[in-house]
Specification:
alpha+beta, 13 strands, about 45% helix, flat
Length: about 450
């Protein structure tokens, strides 16, 4: 359950207005560490606190526990920033307590790694914890870090009864922790950019004479700052929507499995047992698919592009082999029109994710009532680019839906399969590779997704 401490990534960068160093020159070399220290002294923005409150309420709901908290370390005190709204939660936002070595979250902060305590009553190490006053005997928590690698605080869930928590719940808590750390990073960047923008504006007022070149540089920098701030604000909104929707979609299959388990417990062993087990298996498969999509989204967002030469024909067959156990796969003819010797240069991990999403989509939304259902994968290399496509004669897509299908968590109907993340991840991945994606589709006749990418 170890969650590694991130390393310091922020380097130093200097720029000067004009060619000669002046007394009032603008220094862009302030590190994120300095901004963090300033940020610790001011309240968190209301927009972030509201989003964190929704997130912490969902954690308590999904984990089915009375208490879920986000803590912040401030000097030698631990402050509750967000607390779940459960009536049985003894902690409220703003609650402070001094570090004395007896609290669960202190161990997470001290060792900078996750902590799981199924039952503190059975663990001699925790027999004297003050949490027993509130009878919170089980705990799962992770550290939260500033971009510099310094500890921000913790995110945790606690229960009045023994609770071992599942690996899936730990993975969900880790993904939410990453989203909170991204919030911190984005907010620090906004603070840093705003401060630099203020310095630029002040410089504009105090300097009476400037060369045309200097004025042009300042305008360009101001425009870059505005664009960057807009991008970070948009990313903050997107992260909020992502955590909220993903948490709801995770809860549905978990609730379904718990309900079926309850039915198995109250009915005679033989009655409907096979049907319930098949329904449970389907819910777990849906949950696995959603978590896989979340991990793919996180990898595409946070991992640098690494381009290598690879055999496209071999990669396509690897993806098809990975999908061979999908339902109805054996009823569809898959044709690969690719030169077996052709090499392309790109990020092989991201290309595989694109192919997996497009081919699995064609399988899920095929028309199996027709005589010859098929999927065709083609590739043509036109230096310095390569273009590949995935075509099918399946259900097709209405023209009014052709743009919406690339939005996060969009489902065309209640009968739609999957998380609603697949095509969003495809488009974001193509953008990350500086490529283009297009769709040609007609309801009842099929669809063709075409990907155009650089091939340096």
């Amino acid at each position: 359950m170890k969650r590694d401490k991130p390393s310091m990534k922020e380097g130093k960068k200097n720029r000067h207005i004009g060619h000669k160093k002046e007394k009032n020159e603008i220094d862009f070399s302030s590190s994120l560490l300095k901004v963090e220290r300033e940020f610790e002294e001011i309240p968190l923005p209301v927009s972030i606190l509201k989003r964190w409150q929704k997130t912490i309420n969902l954690i308590a709901d999904i984990f089915e526990v009375p208490s879920a908290l986000i803590h912040q370390l401030k000097k030698k005190e631990i402050v509750v920033i967000s607390a779940s709204g459960s009536r049985k939660n003894p902690y409220k936002a703003g609650h402070r307590f001094k570090m004395n070595g007896q609290y669960y979250c202190e161990a997470v902060i001290k060792h900078k790694k996750s902590l799981l305590i199924p039952n503190a009553l059975k663990d001699p190490k925790w027999q004297n914890t003050p949490k027993f006053e509130a009878n919170l005997i089980s705990y799962i928590g992770l550290p939260l870090f500033w971009p510099s690698g310094n500890i921000f605080g913790t995110i945790c869930a606690m229960d009045h009864k023994e609770n071992a928590y599942s690996l899936k719940l730990l993975q969900l808590l880790e993904e939410i922790g990453h989203a909170i750390e991204q919030d911190l990073q984005n907010q620090l960047q906004i603070q840093k950019l705003n401060r630099s923008k203020n310095i630029l504006e002040e410089t504009n007022k105090t300097e009476e004479t400037k060369s045309e070149e200097s004025t042009y540089d300042i305008k360009q920098l101001n425009e870059q700052f505005r664009e960057r701030i807009h991008f970070l604000e948009k990313l903050n909104e997107e992260l909020g929507a992502f955590v909220y929707s993903a948490s709801h979609d995770l809860k549905a299959p978990l609730s379904s499995v718990l309900g079926l388990i309850h039915l198995l417990q109250i009915e005679s062993p033989a009655k409907n047992q096979r049907i319930y087990l098949e329904m449970m298996e389907k819910s777990i498969i849906n949950l696995q698919g959603l978590i896989s999509d979340i991990l793919n989204y996180a990898k595409n967002t946070g991992t640098k592009v690494q381009k290598v030469k690879f055999n496209f024909f071999a990669l396509v067959h690897e993806v098809i082999n990975d999908l061979k156990f999908m339902e109805n796969m054996e009823k569809i003819t898959i044709t690969v029109n690719v030169d077996p010797e052709l090499q392309v240069r790109s990020d092989i991990i991201r290309i595989k994710a694109i192919l997996t999403n497009l081919i699995s989509n064609s399988i899920n939304y095929h028309n199996l009532q027709q005589p010859k259902p098929y999927i065709v994968i083609q590739l043509q290399s036109i230096s310095p680019r390569f273009i590949f496509s995935v075509s099918d004669n399946g259900q097709g897509i209405e023209k009014s839906e052709s743009e919406k299908i690339f939005k996060m968590f969009y489902r065309a109907s209640t009968q739609s399969i999957g998380s609603g993340l697949g095509l969003y991840i495809v488009k974001e991945t193509v953008n990350k590779l500086n490529g283009k994606i297009s769709l040609e589709s007609e309801p009842g006749k099929g669809s063709t997704f075409k990907i155009d990418l650089p091939n340096p």
